[in-house]
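Structure ticket #2291
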Amino acid sequence: MEETRKTCSSEGKPKSKSRTPPTPPPPPVELRNWLDLPRDVTASILSRLGAVEILKSAELVCMAWRNVCKDPLTWRTVDMSNNRGFNLWASDLDKMCRRAVDRSCGNLVDINIQHKCTDDLLMYITNSSKGIKRLQLDNCFNITNEGLSEVASKLPLLEELEISNSLLSHEPALQVVGASCPRLKSFKFNHRWRYSWDWRESNDDALAIAATMHDLHHLQLRGNKLTNDGLQAILDGCPHLESLDLRECFHLKLGGELGRRCAERIKKLQLPHEPISKDES
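Resolution: structure written out below.
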């Protein structure tokens, strides 16, 4: 009985718990002062910002950043499309674009403008910058065929041109662009079929491209009203085409020989009924 009690008493004692040693604190994080970055690294970072972000924010951080933002080489690329978060009037954007062009001191090679470009602004840009190689105009409804024709002769080095969702649709302007820009390799001329009020067939754009843009490698004609005859002319007149985007070109019928010719010759072919993502529209 006594032996039993000893056993019970020993079993009734709480077992000692082994304690896990505390986790050592993480080593202190070494904070890097962005103001101490080398100038070329700072310039590389700032070059990823839009023009509005630089003029309204980045250049106000400190004197070192302001000096980089005043360097003409910072403005070889001017992106006026990224202005969300800044409540700006059209007149403000016009002035900021001109300021960015002025700061480039003629070094501008790439410019992207959305919504707020006019004939007058386009003339100012091309008068100030003779070396532009890439020009993007998206939703710029105030640019006219006459305005585009007038500045085309000032863009002899142009290699890439994008005009999306505009009111430009007459072949004389495209003929002037093709004749004035012999180095043009990429042309994007897009419309929104679903918002168009005139769906009648027209090969004017296609014939102008075929007649003057013989060195094109990449052509995007989303929402165009061309027919098989217009596409045939493009294939004949642009022998170097590698990519061709025909999405929403619903007058085309590519089930026969023309479709086979496109498939055999064009490395990247996008057909009329292929979808357009929200990011692309």
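Closing remark: The chain is about 35% helix and 10% strand.
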